[in-house]
Amino acid sequence: MAGTAYLPDLAIQGAESQDPPRHSAVVRITHWITALSFVGLLVSGIAILIAHPRLYWGNTGALGGPSLIDLPIPFMIGHSGWGRYLHFLSAWVSVLTGLVYALFGLLSHHFGKNLLPAKGDLAWSRIWRMVWHDLQLKRPGAEEALKYNVLQRLAYLAVVFVLFPLVILSGLAMSPAIASVVPVLRSGFGGQQSARTIHFFIALALVLFLCVHIAMVWLAGFTDRVRAMITGHGATGKEHS
Amino acid sequence: MSDRLSRRKLITTGLVAAAGATGLGIAARLADRYGLIPPDDGGVYGVGETMTYAAQRLLTSRHSLAREFNRSDISKIAPIKGPPPEDETYHRLLAGEFADWRLKIDGLVARPTFLSLAELRRFPAENHVYHQACEEGWSFIAEWTGVPLAYVLNLVGVLPQAKYVVFFGFDTNFDAADKQTIRGKWNSIDMADAWHPQTLLAYGMNGQELPVPHGAPLRLRVPRQLGGKSTKYLSLITVTDTVKDIGLGFGAGGVERGFSWYAGI
Question: Which pLDDT score is estimated for A125?
Fold first, then answer.
């Protein structure tokens, strides 16, 4: 009997507490740590790049030889020292945070529930309609504060499962020590200079994602969405329920 | 009910924190014992640096080799970073085609030794064609001829307590009485890289004598690290158990200018 007396107690407690959070605590914490480490990676990445803003293909490349792209940035030597220190510190924070997130995403079915698009949503007509909607910079409806639409899901999946793994692997491929342990990592990217070039373009894609991400958050209501990512609960979500 | 829960939570958190702290303590002890902590482990950047160095030391072994290329892969351009030393002795030795040059090997060795270029050339020579990237981003492939550092280390008899091999070129004040005043492009590697079969004391490049801008008469080649680690214009090699008493104590002159000591990246 003690058990049945205990259950309603729990139910009342549940009703009194807030709605389930829009974003789980793990997603919120890993989101902000990743955001911080990404800033570190970006700033230090630029510091490293400007020492030699020229991109090559293959194993080797140097001034006086052919390049793939000459970036319109002046050569600025003297920043790659702290740049490399900060880059690797941020990379470790980012990778370890990513591991926690990936493990959580699998165990809690976060990927399946929140990121994998429903089969019906993957119809091209639906996707194009969403793209058209977003291109007009229309404010999303209230229901979109509660779950991701198909475009968001595809974008997040691409960032989590394609861009981040590729940027890590192409970064590791540049390491002479790692390349001596896993030679195929470097040759798979087409050589050390190809890996460097690919690393640059994936980083660029991630920056592009960040810009669109911030623009969309702005459009949807910056304070509300940022609050939801910090506290777990946005004002819209409350009103809606 | 919630009281009990929070108490349980508190105890669990305490236990986890204690286990974490103990774990970290043990990890730090083990890391130090197995040489997983670089000389520039201080500060916030030191955390990332230590993790990179430790991870790569655990992953690499003497069997992990830098890729050996074909002679046809040798780059037409082999860029040079920095001018040759201004040191007077260096230019006098250069004028004499390094006939009077001697490589001194001292420190934790059974037989401190002076070696001439002719003696080095009589040792079993090896040719390696490997890739070299600079800190800045450019890279090239070249063939290097020389004697494995391990061969020379065996010759002088490295004592068991050795932890680092330190390299001084003519672009340092290596003969300073007080080692803490040594500045310039001196560098050091750990014993894992020192004994590595591809680590070379090179006196030849691309089938010719090592050109002056590339470090004549002798330079180090460490193919599993960035180019800056391959010290040029060698004059003195010191085997030691600590680098704390050389220069500012970070294991390389470059660290004093903001670059990390380990360059396996």
Answer: 87
